[in-house]
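## Example record

The block below lists the input lines for one assembly entry, exactly as stored, with component labels intact.
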Amino acid sequence: MNVVTPAPLVVDGLLVGAILFALGLVGLLARRNLIVMFLCAELMLQGISVSLVAWSRHHGDWGGHVLVIFVLTVAACEAAVALVFVLQAFARTGRLDSAAWQSLREANLPRIVDRELPATDAVPPRFPRLTPAGVAPATDEDALLEREQV
Amino acid sequence: MNFSDPSTLLVLVPLVPLAAAVLTVALGRVLGRRSWLPAVAGIGAAFVCAVMLLSGMAREVTGVGHDQPARPVEFVTTLWEWAGVDAAGMSGAAPQAFSIPVSLRLDPLTATLLVIITGVGLLVAIYSIGYMHGDPGEPRFFALVSAFVFSMSMLVAASNFLLVYVFWEAVGACSYLLIGFWFSKSAAAQAAKKAFLVNRVGDFGLAVATFLLWMTYGTLNFHDSVAADGTLVPGILGATRLADASAYAGGAVGTAICLLFLLAACGKSAQLPLHVWLPDAMEGPTPASSLIHAATMVTAGIYLVARTAPLFVACPGALTLVSIVGATTALVAALIGTVQNDLKRVLAYSTISQLGYMFASLGTGTLLGFTAAIFHLVTHAFFKALLFMGAGSVMHAMGGVIDMRRFGGLRRIMPVTAATFLAGALALAGAAPFAGFFSKDEILAALHSRGWADAHADHHEGLPADGHAAAAAVFRLVSSPTDAARISAGPRASTLDALDTPATFRLLFWMSLVTAALTAFYTFRAVFMTFTGPTRVPEEAGHHAHESPPSMTVPLAILAVLSAVSGWWLFSTHSLATFLAATPSFTAPAVAASATPAVFHWDLAIQGTLAAALGIVVAALGHLGRRSDGPQPERFLGPLATLFANRMYFDQVYAALIVKPLQVIALIAAFVDRHLVDGLVDLVARVPLGLGGVVRHLQSGIVQRYALAGVIGALLIVLAVVARAMG
Amino acid sequence: MIASLLPSISPGTLLAGGVTATAASLWMLLPRGRSGRAERSSRWLGGLLGLAALAAFIALGRRLGSVGEDTIFLVVALVAVVSGAATVVSRSPVYAAIWFAMALAGVSGVLLVLGGQFLGVATIVVYAGAILVMFLFVLMLAQPAGLAPYDRVSNEPLLAAVAGAVLLGILSLSIGRLAADPASCCAVPATKAALLATDPGAGPNGPGTVDLLAADHVARLGGELFGRHLLAVEVAGVLLLVALVGSIAIVSRGAADDEATDSRRATP
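Predicted structure tokens for the full assembly:
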């Protein structure tokens, strides 16, 4: 048996990876916005990547590095497919809410509806918007610029 | 015909009606109005086969004089092995191989009954062409009649008690289906149910008797058979056992078997106390009543007792009880019949009464008694089928009305029916020289010979001394309890044997004589009420009030001729008695030794004729030429008339003693089932339901909650693993 | 540093405190649909608790490893962790995406410090440059006006925070065990040791290990990738192709559905 001692920063790297993974998990479980959920999933993947590289450092081989490259690849695929789904979902409901999709529940159970939220004085930030994909540039410019929903 | 191998014919007799039944069921819709074709053709072919068998059998039997002891004649063909278990596969102290072959037998008794069954069946089928015309259930009716002829043929041809049981049930099933033929009518459905349930009691007796036979004799076959290892297995009614007078169990076991047979016979042949189903069975179509509930199926009990004659002879007490039950039933049914106003019910009670006669005759245990019973069975089949068909003809013309008070004077409208009905009535009443006169005379002679054994023996002073002595010896042998104990194989005689005294038979003889008078009375009361007096027709009849079509009157005429001449012919030639004496069951020493020369008993004939004349005269005084809805002379009976009109309250007593308690038990059982058992089951069902009600809220449809649950579960597992790793 | 003030506390206490503070901090920081004032105070308190949890974990890291000794690592790790937490708790998805870009920068730094030179760069290029930009495009396509109600509430925040903190605790515990007794979980099997012994480069971890920080790092990683892992690379390529085709298929089918329902298109 060839016992190796932890290289410097291995434990620290593992700790950082664990923290990132846990943060991402909390976000994935708690946040309702589909896109934020996916960001959190990516955050979990980042935690994994950090851990893998730390382990690679610990063992002194290329395995962790190679795996991280594959993680990047799969994450890219996942993002591509998932974003398409998000877009489709948004096109149907006008929302990015994960709770908008609850038809697959036990029969006769009531639909879960959010309680009335108290007013907030937070000023919603404004961001630029893009023309919806696949829609020809509009004839009605006001509707495109100031529409309530897509 | 090469009679050395009649198996083909023997198989054809039941097979062709079965094929007809299947064909009718399969092609009922195609045949439409001609659905009677397969039944008539099939039963007709079976009748031809049966007649050929009978003639062949008769040639086998001839050459045996009346004075010589009859030689047993039987032919058995085994079709296939139905069930079999080696001795090695049996447990118990003395394991015996169990083997149930599907065997058909032919002997004089079977041949006679096959001809009756197929012959009456054929006439009934022809009659039904007219009677059932236009009924939507026509194919069903003919299929059932064919199936019945098949089952009944198999019943009398089976050579195995288990097969007998199977077809005993099969004819019961056909009877049930035909009684309930118009099942949309509540009364018909109720009557079918009643017949079925009452028959259940008797069938139970037959089943238990079969078990006891197996335990006692180690086989269920009638005939001797050869086991797989080459040893001879003596059948219950086989030649080996018949030759040995002590081979039949007496005592408690033998008596139990015989009493169970009697119970079975009482159920099927409607004897007291199980007779209540037969009058209600008249709800079925009249041809079915004629075939099943008058001529053939109800005589299955007679057949059973006659077939097992050696067993009964070994148990004199049980045998005497057969006579007592028969004579009592005959009297009671005749009394009830005197005040019935429903033509078919009069005939139904008359059937019960005549069957009682046959049982009384069987119970004498002499060869004369057995042959007389079968003789009466044959003549009764003719004239009772005739009477029922006549009643059906009346009913057909009267638009379904069968209450005698609502019509009268029908002889002017339906001359053929009236004439044939009168012939049947004369035969039933026992007027010379019609059929019933001779057969009834034989029965009275059989009873008389047991009541006054010595006096009866004196009738035959001109006979050879040895024959005379043998006959007298046998009477003493059979009639004395101590001698009866000697011929029975059991260690002790049954206490029932004390019944077997001449005094008993003297009482039974007088009862039968009274019954004869009553029979004549109620028969002619029906004749006079229906066919004489001013012509009246109920409004239901409409344009139907005319003579029935030829398909109905021709069978009536044939049966009328048979009713008129068959008794005289069969009696004067002694052909039937001689023929039947060759039946293996009747060649048992105890039976065969009681053979007496056939003699016409003038004294008994005069007594019987006087009784019949008395009955006819009283009926004529009360009813001849009067309006049938007028005051009836029976009112002079007072409370007795009410008693008889209510059928001696048998149904009410059964309802109170059996039906009501059972209903109470059923109610309790239903309550327990509905609330206790179902409650428990519901409780068991509510547990998962309740748990599910709690858990189902987890299935909220929100994916993130599922993910959270998954993460928590994974964390718990990891925690457990870590806790173990940390020690 | 706060972490230096906590040397006398035992690792167990640090872990327990850190986990508890993490849970409480996340619960307070997560959007819970409260009014503006309550929300603000809750976030302040959560932030403070988060700082405390951070301090506890830095102290724990010092105790177990070398956090704090390598200042660059400390800085990039803090950037990654704080930005990651901000990603999770940001109300606006756009802010969350931008915070995620920040976290990616931190992670990239951490990877660089840990010796993953190529991976650090690749993360920036692939994630920040491609994936994240795609996210932002989608956000801008599908962005309701104002702050959506579902961005102001969370799904079971308490349970989620506790679950995450417990997971963190378990992982920290395992890492602590590794630090305390490397042989317990990190023994290299003999077969692998023999395999490694054939490697020409003797790494700093002893004979049989590779020197990940060698000058020709990227070349050797490429050699490894297209040597031992060639088949996996091919499979990954196929996977990318399938994802591409799948995405296009779903989009075109969705467009067909929209075409049927879109009245603007139906009446040109």
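The interface with chain B takes residues 25, 28-30, 32, 37, 98-99, 101-106, 109, 111-112 of chain A (CB under 8 Å). The two ends of chain A are 63 Å apart (CA to CA).
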